[in-house]
Amino acid sequence: MTSRPASLAVTRPPKLKLTPQERRASLMLALLFAARMLGLFLLTPVFAVAALSIPGGHDAVKVGLALGAYGLTQAVLQIPLGMASDRFGRRAVVVGGMALFVVGGAVCAMASSIEWIIVGRVIQGLGAVSAAITAWVADATRPEVRTRAMAMVGGSIGLSFAASLVLSPLLTGRFGLSGLFWAITFLGFACLLIAAWVVPSVPRSPLPIVQVRMREVLAHADLLRLNLGVFCLHFILMAIFMVAPGMLAERGGYQAEQLWRVYLPIILLSFVFMVPVVFVTETRRWHRGALLASVAGLVVVLAALAFPMGLWGTVAWLVAFFVAFNVLEALQPSLVSRLAPPAYKGMALGLFNTAQALGVFAGAAAGGILVSRGVAPVFWLAAGMALLWYVAGRGMGPVQQTPAGPR
Fold first, then answer.
1. Rounded CA separation 388/382 (Å)
2. CB-based contacts of 398: which residues, under 8 Å, 6+ apart?
3. Which domains are seen in the chain, by residue range?
4. Residue scoring higher pLDDT (100 or 38)
5. Cα separation, 128 vs 141, whole angstroms
């Protein structure tokens, strides 16, 4: 048996790893993003019930507006603040944005009516720093490993929401709604300190975050599908949480501060089932299939939740919902990073974050309008949004890593 000549031997290229500086920057930015998102998400699991204790809190439309108001101002300012971070630096813009978040949180904590909470949430949304943070990640990493870093940031969002489901009822029960807002304010201040002192300085790319005209980015069909997807996902989340707290309280006999007893097993079980899905998706590069399967699952789950059922049936379907939600929340930012051509990756991320914020506002507003008609219309609307997403997503092409290049 003859051996293969050394010149013909096939060698596998070494697997690229994050450098120590890239790893530290990515971890700190993911922590910053997670802490900020936790500060925003903490209100979601209990507000529809806890708002009943303040003047104006029985007005479901105003409660929905208060819950989603920050999404509207986020959507308007996401790209302008991303551009400002090119001119004035990532750190300066993120620190300034978190300062506004702290001010808005304090206004909410001292609010004497639902109207003042709306004002505070609008101020919180003025700190629209998601695009600046994702651009900071791009500055801190090489193109070859950037998707991994973006996935860390995307995964931190799902973890933040999971933590909020447990922490929110506990904090509300111990300190009341005002105390919950002070906790949110404290998290914003922690983010400010992380951005100012902990995230390492990295040289900015000489290319701005918005390098091409917006219409060039909007011509990319698969990125448009991902923008629609993140809009639908956060629309669905905010809409159903206009009814889920009250629904669980009624079916399980829980007070707002006791909802953690049902949220905790839901989120733990969802992570147990989610981890294998994410592992298979990454190892087999089944990104498109995992996305479509998860969205199809959302359609089924949301339609099922529209029908009357007991507490344990509701819990089982919510576990299925959060399996799909967490997979999609981690998968989509990574897909944007993979699909966006390097020439307009920054603009693509800015539009993606804008679509997410619009989904938050529109979902909370729609849920607030429909909740007076009962639980079922909210879930049917959410199922319809998921079906629209699934139909649009079927047109997505194969997912391939974009060639390395400048941001």
1. 10
2. 288
3. 21-393 (1.20.1250.20)
4. 100
5. 22
